[in-house]
Amino acid sequence: MVTSTTATRVVIANSKRHAAFAAFVVLTSVAFYKTLSALIQYSLRNDSSSHIVLIPFIALFLIYMERQRIFSITRMSVSPGVSLTLVGIVLLVLVSRSSFSRDGNWQLSLQTLAVLLIWAGGFLLCYGFFAFRAAAFPLLFLLLAIPLPDVILERATYALQAGSTEITYLIFQMVGTPVSRHGFLLSVPGVTIEVAKECSSIRSSIALFITCLLAAHLYLRTGWKKLVVVVLALLLSVVKNGIRIATLTLLSIYVNPGFLSGKLHQEGGFLFFLIALLILLPVFLCMEKSDKARISANSVG
Known about the structure:
By secondary structure, the chain is mostly helical. It has 2 domains: about 1-145, no CATH class; about 150-300, no CATH class. It is built from 13 helices and 3 strands; from the N terminus they run αααααααααβββαααα. The chain has helices at about 1-30, 35-45, 55-65, 65-70, 80-95, 105-125, 130-135, 135-140, 150-175, 200-220, 225-255, 265, 270-300; strands at about 180, 185-190, 190-195. The chain is globular.
């Protein structure tokens, strides 16, 4: 009876905390409407940032899935919560008034970081340090909602271009197709292709990274295995794009030139995204199986 009464009190207390935090998020969202509106518009306009609008909902879903563990111990942390919130507010004010951050999308990136700090401060204030630490992954996952500054985005795109060009070149050599390379230009019999920025496939690469990051968090228990999966996802981002470019080029040579401008070229990114997942799947399943075996052995011991 005591246990049931205690559990009821915890549920009631947490319900009040949930309401308080929801009100905090709503009020701050209204207060910082311009920043959030600019962020949403930026996400909808740029393919490289189309994932941004989904990140808060995914983070909220992760918290909901792990709610029993996260909210098992809650108490207000006034000083740390208020301090973190003030850091976010000060950063937002400084960025909004500074001129150095206006170029290269730095302003929106730092403003978004400031809002996330304010929300994190509100979470810490309402739920306390234990819940804050237990919710570390969903809260850190929110950082993916920060748009990359132009200079970082350009370097990432360039890296994908260079890697994709190298992989495509190697595939042509492996299948015996004569090929010459000049920078991002690859010449094969009958056609010369350029691995342009638009061919870097950064959108599907980000989607692959996020998918593998979530899968590693949800199904793996060993830190180094999670890291391996994430690193492999980054490498496969380049490999699958090289496979995509080589496949389309070979199909245009030996089947139909229209493959270089057809639906497979325009809308086939998801297909090669699935191919990358299938390549990674056996490694992931082996890691998951070994984690389960280790946990079973520990529980028996």
